Amino acid sequence: MVSASAPAWRKLVVRIPYIWLFAFFLVPFLIVLKISLSQTALAQPPYTPVLDLAAGWRGLVAFFSGLSFDNYRLLASDPLYVLSYVKSVEIAAFSTLILLVVGYPIAYAIARTPRRWQAALVLLTILPFWTSMLIRIYAWMNILQHDGPLNQLLMALAIVKEPPVWLSTPTAIYIGVVYSYLPFMVLPLYASLEKIDEALIEAAADLGCPRWKIFWLVTLPLSSAGMVAGVLLCFIPIVGEFVIPDLLGGSSEPMIGQTIWMEFFGNKDWPAASAVAVVLVCLLVTPIVIYQNQAMRVVERD
Amino acid sequence: MLNVETKQAFVPLTEPSSRPILRIESLSKRFGRSTVVDQLSLDIYEGEFFALLGPSGCGKTTLLRMIAGFERPNNGRILLDEVDLASIPAYRRPVNMMFQSYALFPHLNVQANIAFGLKQERWPRREIARRVAHILALVKLEGLAKRKPHELSGGQRQRVALARSLVKRPRVLLLDEPMAALDKKLRRETQAELIALQRQLGLTFVIVTHDQSEAMTVADRIGVMDQGRLVQVGPAPEIYEEPKSRWVADFVGEVNLFEGRLGDDLRSVEATPAGSLHAALKPDATPGATVWVAVRPEKIRITRDQPVPTPENCIAGKVVEVGYLGETSIYKVRVGENCVVKAALANVGSGGHRVAAVDDDVWLSFPAYAAAVLTQ
Q: What is the mean pLDDT of the segment spanning A254-259?
């Protein structure tokens, strides 16, 4: 009895992640996909067709014949959506680049401090997470407002004559995004930099390599896995970011998260919102596939 | 067991052509409050294979790292070809190091690993390729040039590391425990190849090891280190046969030590636990001083009957333990009240034949020239 039940248990344990992904990713995604193929209606739920199982086979046929790609045609025809995608990818790409440039030296510095200090420094990196993200973004609204601390400082130091406008500009979005996502860049970079054997650095020096060149020839290539992980961990969520652009960036040039919100709550157009979301998922699958390939290469190498 | 005869001893001091290539002058290194290298002076000669031998933590690796430029000495000087290395950073020193962990670049293949040092010197591409191919042939790694380090066996990785450190033809090659990760059989083969390679290239090698048989096999001269100091420097037979102290005698191989009082003729030692013993060489001490007679186990004969003619040193005892080691057997023999003497005998017979068994009464004998008298 025991020997027969043990493999069954093991099978279940192995399958839990699949069950999880099925129930909480695939099923919701299929529901969203279905809604994106529907039309808006003044009803509850606010779209048609709705599957009527009581009608049997006729109901099923009516259900499938009611689906259409109209919403996707709308996305392609209205520049609002295309611009929104372009803006989201642009902001995500540039802020990821800034994060890489800012995060790399931080991660490098942490990895090179004495080991007993490293844990404390890593903790400090993630310390902002102990406060709610919403509160931190509100704090930035306060800092960036017209007579806020930033402008007061700039005026006091006589760097600017007139207080510049920060809020509702792309700059404010970049500040908020870089500030919020920094730990997601620093942690994977630190993890890969910390693994680099000090003897490799010494070996490169021994073979005639000055300090700066060691960085280019040894440190940077050996931290590539951390860079790829950090870039994807930042880029993917930033593309769909809603709170930061909504609070700091205003609504004149919405990012895709804001567009979805607008369709959903403003226009009550669930099908259009779903279509925007499905296209976003398809856009983001590309970098994830690249990441998977990279990860597989790393696994093979180790 | 110790292949001291496998190579021609290189005696730098008697060869007129040799001059010190590396000169270490009262070098000290402290980490915090502990002194790791303490006022150490040493000359290493051109073309020499020098071994720094000592237990772990004796400062031998730190000394090597100071020569390479990875550690800064607190005091003293290191001169290479009469040039003080103090102001020269590691990357500009004409020495190379082979690391204990090999430190191969995991993202580069074998060829790129070996070419790394040459590329830093901006050699022409074809010359780099030619030299890499040459060194690959020398360490018998042809055909593996395109492999990444993780696709190689431990022994192959070791050869790549060796090739990488040799390809720039350093003035001095530093080897930090280069064979520690190899199994015993592979280590023996590699030792022989290392000697051949050093002779062929005519380079100066400084090896750090804690394995006394490895040091004796490969090195022309050995520097025995303890607690940051060099306690004895000399060719392997000298270190083994004429140790300067009990510590050296004990660290370099097995030894039996008998404490006693130096006799009036300076050749006999009285009142040892094994009675009165005799040595051939006079120590630098006065009669009546406390000294120790050191005898290697393999120099002691063990017989059931008292040998005739009786050698200078002949002691009666009782076997308490016999350890079979394959090529030799170790007999532990109780002499007097609480003195146990170790004697090693080659197992020349077959079928587990033994001279004596536990509880047998036996005679231990050794000539005067087999014993050394130590004063410290």
A: 90
